[in-house]
């Protein structure tokens, strides 16, 4: 896609190309059904409200992991670090053991907290709304942890990269 000032129609390819200009972080949404850990990769995570504390994310309507996590009502959003691209790939692929050799511990709500992440947000399902080929999920935050010494994995224009932190 070339640089243009022309208004383009929102077909799927153009949507992907234009919205790919918005840099996002990458997260893995996890849960535990009492028998096994569950998870999927997600780049559509955002803060919704500070009071009450809500976050949002958007799983694909075709996700097989989200309905299993939804049924538990509890989840963790694991914000991936810049050295966790392989973790992202592992959780983005259907039909495989997503947890494989990954180190994780159960969070306070029982959901897997992946080692080495930038941050983890523990939450409970609050609302869901169908939205085309995705679902908008709003979750009530019940716990937070962050590692200021780790840089995030970023997704931009179809590729992954890192971030140089600004002076504080």
Polypeptide structure, described:
This protein has 168 residues and is mainly β. It has a domain at 23-45 and 64-125 and 144-156: Electron Transport, Fmn-binding Protein, Chain A (Pnp Oxidase, Chain A). The chain contains three helices and twelve strands. A seven-stranded antiparallel β-sheet has the order 3-2-6-9-10-5-4. A three-stranded antiparallel β-sheet has the order 1-11-12, with no helix packed on it. A hairpin with a 4-residue loop joins strand 2 and strand 3. The protein is globular and about 50 Å long. 28% of the residues are buried. The mean pLDDT is 89.
Task: Could you tell me the CATH topology label of the domain at 23-45 and 64-125 and 144-156.
Answer: Pnp Oxidase, Chain A
Radius of gyration: 16 Å
Biggest beta sheet summary: 7 strands, antiparallel
pLDDT < 50 runs, ≥5 residues: none
Number of distinct beta strands: 12
- Give me the CATH superfamily of the domain at 23-45 and 64-125 and 144-156: Electron Transport, Fmn-binding Protein, Chain A
Kindly report the spatial arrangement of strands forming the biggest sheet.
Answer: 3-2-6-9-10-5-4
- Tell me which CATH architecture of the domain at 23-45 and 64-125 and 144-156 applies here: Roll
Oligomer type:
single chain
- Percent of residues in helices comes to 10-25%
Family: Belongs to the non-flavoprotein flavin reductase family.
Domain Flavin reductase like: 19-162
Organism: Mycolicibacterium parafortuitum (Mycobacterium parafortuitum)
Keywords: Monooxygenase, Oxidoreductase
